[in-house]
Write a structure and sequence with these properties.
By secondary structure, the protein is α/β, with parallel strands linked by helices. Helices cover 44% and strands 23% of the residues. It has 25 helices and 27 strands. Strands 11, 12, 13, 14, 15, 16 and 17 form a seven-stranded mixed sheet that branches. It has a five-stranded antiparallel sheet with strand order 2-1-5-4-3, sandwiched between helices. The longest helix has 50 residues, at 262-311. The chain is elongated. The termini are far apart. 30% of the residues are buried.
Length: 798
Amino acid sequence: MKDSLRQTCYSLIRTDAVFFDLVTRKETMGFGLWRFAGEDISFWLSPAVKDALEAAGSIRGTIEARVSEVVEQTITNDLKPDYTQEQLLPFAIELRDLINEEMSITGLLRKATIASEGADTTLVFVLFNHLEGYKGAVRTLQQLYRARKMLDQISQVSRVGGWEIDLIRNRMTWSKVTREIHEVGDDFIPNPENIVQFYKEGENRELLRQLSFDAMKYGRSLDHDFQIITTTGKEVWIRVIAYSEFHKDKCVRLYGTIQDVDAEKKAALELIESKRQAEAANVAKSEFLANMSHEIRTPLNSIIGFSELLLQSELDEVQGQYLNSVHNSGVVLLELINDILDFSKIEAGKLELYIEKTDFVEMCEQIADILRYRIAKSNLEFLLNLDQKSPPFIWADSIRLKQVVINLLGNAAKFTEQGEIEFSVLVIDEHTPPEGLHTVTLRFEVRDTGIGIARQKQNQIFNAFAQADGSTTRKYGGTGLGLAISNSLLQLMDSTLELESEEGKGSRFWFDVTLPYSREKRAESYDLEKISSVLIVDDNDNNARILQKVMESRNISCTVFSSGEQAINHLKSFSGSYDALISDYHMPEMDGIEMIRNIREDLGINSQQLPILLLHSDANDKVIFKACARYDIQRQMNKPVSSKQIYDALARLRSPVPVSKKSPEAEQHWSTNRIYRILIADDNRANMVLARALVKKFIPNARISEAADGKEAVLLYQEERPDLILMDVQMPEMSGYEATERIRMSYLDDKTLIIALTAGAIKGEKERCLEAGMNDYLSKPINVGELERQLKYYLGNS
């Protein structure tokens, strides 16, 4: 039917000159044909008209029905029986009620009679004028309508309202949402004066006035949160955004948005309050830890300090063993406290690294020294294997680096009953750019022959408070924090712990760290020019290999044997000579001392012909000392030994230095006979006695005064004006901080030396002491060497 109407329409246009003239006019933009056959109405539209109706979207059907209705009414009411084809009837259809805009469809109607269609059929030809204008207008209006509807929906959901102030007419307009936010009806007429009353009195109103003035005067945009009180008395947070419009340097309009941000603002304020409470709780936790640290470290200070002093006195063997157990127990307890404090710092995110220039070899030697005695008591081989390409100096937090390695070595010693423990450092990579930092990647590794760890439990041991199983804790002890703390420390160094282990065969822990380094040469106190060849005797292949590498790095040739019998047989037939013999003590069948006895007595080779360096890991020094004296062994050293220590020992082998447990230099402490006035302030009597003993050790003629609290310390200072004050920081009545500040401020004294004594171990303690006016800081338990260093530094040159 549609195709039939189309063909009829085009047939009419072609055969009727009037139709053709109308269609081809400029103002005619489309046409159509309506067919009326009784109650049946059908129509056909040209493509241009169809496109126009497509733009109308959902109201297209309504528009088509409206046009059909107008066509029907027009020909029914207005056409007379004598109507002729030449008559044209104009029409107009208003669309305001459909698209809410002043828009209409206009055109011309012309009736046509087609004989073949029958007497009851009427055709009406319709021309649409200005169709393109209508099409564009309808499309634009539809888009605007949809956009406005969408914006209204977004505005409702996001609670964002609009507003505008016409400063020329002094008229203000609010959107629907803005009215809802302020809880006012449609009858409320906003103006620049009455809207201020919504803003909460005080800072809110003053800030609104100031920012509004800046916007109108200087064109500054406004974006700020305010608190308003609605008409129902509800307090609501809103966000006001404003922009200004100027004409000829005069502000003519302010406009912008108002957003309901009450929920977000209150959530943010709650978050701030929660954060404040969390920070307060963290501070309280830190203070609790500081207090607990102080309370525990205070008695530990006495236990470790007095036992260390007594160990340096004349004791019989049993007394020495008992006292050494007391001292070691105190040190272990201190390590546990430090682990708990470190773990708390890690949890709070307060653990930081302190980077400084570090002597690499010396650091490794210190690590070995700390574990040497403990491992020796277990009759284990302790190997120190340092890559000869290692840099002399690195930039690192040596304390934390040592802490990680010592923890690994401590675990190795704890879980190894026989065999050996090796601490090695290997250079993995060097980066030496033309400009910038030179860096080296070092692999720190600890290997043992201990109980090992089952594969399914290897990940578990890195968790806090965890060990391989419950029986491990019961048998070997420990908190289970060591590896978790070590891993957290290594994360600060961009590294992590790695593990290889087999149950019953031992474990291998390692980590790689990349550090800046310096190739600055280390000052050496040894001369190896006279050492060209050495004889090495050691049944441990790993230790013999390490010694061989150490020798070869200095172009010293070496001959290696794994038993004393092999070495003796070799010397019997050897026609040459060696500059030194390096021998292990613990060897099967024939130990090192028995081998040396054979060399000295049976072969008749004296110390001038063959100087001897004896390496041992025996805790029974008396046997070693007697053997050294009897068989003219020039040097004895506790294993493990670093290359630096071996070189130094080889250089001194031919020097007439008496053999002793410690070198004379190590036994000599700094001391002075000058008379100094020393004030010790401490509320704990045991710590007072210990501090007095330590001071007397280094300054025998010191005149010591004692104060039990801060107030007494200030009074004694006023009377005696001491040269040095050892000031405990936590005391009743008046703390050490307050006493120091009183001395510095009230007496304007910046010359008296004040050294803090504190059992606190929380970050910032040292800074707080220095801020109060103290010169330095000593943590409890007091390290005797550190006290000596500070006394020498502050009083040694005075």
